[in-house]
């Protein structure tokens, strides 16, 4: 009789173990699926948080601008002129009245990149003009491949007219121009204008 009880007990134990094993497989699958779903949701949430973080977005835009500026060096040889201020900023401008509504910024850079733009311009006989206020305004308010701001049309027209006259004279098609006039840059577009900067700071307080 003891043997029968033992056999029955072993049989019940095996049955319980088998039942647990059978139930455990779906349970493990369910838990794994839940973990995967939670991991995926966490990744999505983290990505969303990173995308929405103004600091992260600002850093990303800054890197994109820096990359665009470095890549724009290749457009300098085809520019009509480069304006500088004289070492910190350089902006290359091109204008084709047949295809453009207004002059465009084809390259720009600061510090070492500005020096590189000047170097490439001189190597390709692109005029380099010293126009500090205009260079600063263009660097601050015009992006690469964009048309210049309408507020700077007059200033850019002045330097373009000077360059066209200079090129014509060098071809023997006119007289050499006098000293280039100071481009008329609206003070509010010059980032170094302390009065304007101070006024804007006070407005944001």
The SS-based structural class is alpha+beta
Broad CATH class of the domain at 62-199: Alpha Beta
Secondary-structure element series = HHEEEHEHHH
Query: In one word, what is the shape?
Result: elongated
Under CATH, the homologous superfamily of the domain at 62-199 reads: secretion proteins EscU
- Under CATH, the topology of the domain at 62-199 can be stated as name from scop
How large a portion of the residues is in β-strands, by DSSP E? 5-15%
The CATH level-2 architecture of the domain at 62-199 is identified as: 3-Layer(aba) Sandwich
Kindly provide the radius of gyration, computed on alpha-carbon positions and rounded to a whole number of angstroms.
Answer: 34 Å
How many strands appear in the DSSP assignment?
Answer: 4
Nearest-integer average pLDDT: 79
How large is the count of helical segments?
6
Q: Cα distance, first to last residue?
A: 94 Å
- The strand line-up of the biggest sheet is 3-2-1-4
Q: pLDDT under 50 segments (min length 5)?
A: none
Major β-sheet profile: 4 strands, mixed
Kindly state the percentage of residues in helix: 55-70%
Defining traits:
single chain, 205 residues, alpha+beta
Explain what this protein looks like in three dimensions:
With 205 residues, this protein is an alpha+beta fold. It has helices at residues 2-52, 54-71, 112-123, 132-141, 153-170, 194-203; strands at 81-84, 89-94, 104-110, 128-130. The chain has a domain at 62-199: secretion proteins EscU (name from scop, 3-Layer(aba) Sandwich), CATH 3.40.1690. A 4-stranded mixed β-sheet has the order 3-2-1-4, with helices on both faces. The radius of gyration is 34 Å and the shape is elongated. Helix content is 58%, strand content 10%. The chain has 6 helices and 4 strands. The longest helix has 51 residues, at 2-52.
């Amino acid at each position: 009789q003891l043997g029968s009880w033992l056999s029955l007990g072993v049989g019940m134990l095996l049955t319980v173990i088998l039942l647990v094993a059978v139930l455990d497989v779906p349970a493990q699958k369910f838990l794994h699926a839940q973990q995967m779903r939670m991991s995926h949701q966490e990744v999505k949430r983290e990505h969303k948080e990173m995308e929405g973080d103004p600091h992260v977005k600002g850093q990303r835009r800054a890197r994109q601008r820096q990359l665009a500026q470095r890549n724009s060096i290749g457009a300098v040889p085809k520019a009509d002129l480069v304006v500088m201020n004289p070492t910190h900023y350089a902006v290359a401008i091109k204008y084709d009245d047949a295809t453009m509504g207004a002059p465009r910024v084809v390259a720009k850079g600061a510090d070492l990149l500005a020096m590189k733009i000047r170097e490439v311009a001189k190597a390709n006989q692109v005029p380099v003009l010293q126009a500090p206020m205009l260079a600063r305004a263009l660097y601050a308010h015009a992006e690469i491949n964009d048309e210049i701001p309408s507020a700077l049309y007059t200033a850019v027209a002045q330097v373009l007219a000077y360059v066209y006259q200079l090129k014509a004279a060098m071809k023997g098609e006119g007289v050499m121009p006098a000293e280039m006039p100071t481009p008329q840059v609206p003070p509010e577009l010059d980032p170094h204008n302390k009065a304007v900067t101070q006024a804007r700071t006070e407005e944001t307080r």
